[in-house]
Amino acid sequence: MTKLDATDLPAPRARRTTALRGGANTELIAWLFMRISGVILLVLVFGHLFVNLMVGDGVHAIDFAFVGGKWSEPFWQVWDLLMLWLAMIHGTNGVRTIINDYAERTGTRLVLKSLLYLAFVVTVVMGTLVIFTFDPCPPGSPADLLPSFCAA
């Protein structure tokens, strides 16, 4: 067993970059993003909850027609898209940090981060497609199943 002395360890405040965690600027940007996106997400989520739960008939009014009516307006499409993208990037960045902190082997870290990024891409692509291709009034549907705002 070898003994460590002070010359073997880097100075605690020494600037260093590692392949594991990216450059110092990458981590600073990620740290800043987490703070800024967290504040924006608070506004988006509480606005979403207020509109869905407090305005109108509250939670009892949430059904297919409610969502269809909201997503027929570009404002709500952009609102929900921002909420989806920011939440996914924010969460993925947080889990990436946890993987970097706790996965000791490079191979394990690579597999976990690959699965994380794959889940991110699938969720964001599918969510974005749903938000922008959602049609509450599909052609050929029975009139009694369509929301009231659809032209029969």
Percentage of helical residues? 55-70%
What's the structural domain tally? Answer: 1
Count of DSSP H/I helices: 4
Overall structural class, as computed from helix and strand content, comes to mainly alpha
Provide the CATH architecture.
Up-down Bundle
CATH class: Mainly Alpha
Give the overall form.
elongated
Could you give me the name of the CATH homologous superfamily? Fumarate reductase/succinate dehydrogenase, transmembrane subunit
Described by strand count, sense and barrel closure, the largest sheet is:
none
> How many runs of DSSP E, i.e. beta strands?
0
Order of helices and strands: HHHH
Query: Approximately what portion of the residues adopt beta-strand conformation?
Result: under 5%
CATH topology: 3 helical TM bundles of succinate and fumarate reductases
**Overall pLDDT score:** 85
Instruction: Report the span from N to C terminus.
Output: 81 Å
Radius of gyration: 23 Å
Question: Which regions are unreliable across 5 or more consecutive residues at pLDDT < 50?
Answer: none
What is the topology?
Blueprint: H1 24-53, H2 64-71, H3 74-102, H4 106-133
Helix pairs in contact: 1-3, 3-4
Protein name: Succinate dehydrogenase hydrophobic membrane anchor subunit
Main location: membrane
Keywords: Cell inner membrane, Cell membrane, Electron transport, Heme, Iron, Membrane, Metal-binding, Transmembrane, Transmembrane helix, Transport, Tricarboxylic acid cycle
How would you portray this structure in words?
The mean pLDDT is 85. The protein has 4 helices and no strands. It has 152 residues and is mainly alpha-helical. The termini are far apart. The protein has one domain (21-145): Up-down Bundle (3 helical TM bundles of succinate and fumarate reductases), CATH 1.20.1300. The longest helix is centred in the first third of the chain and has 30 residues, at 24-53.
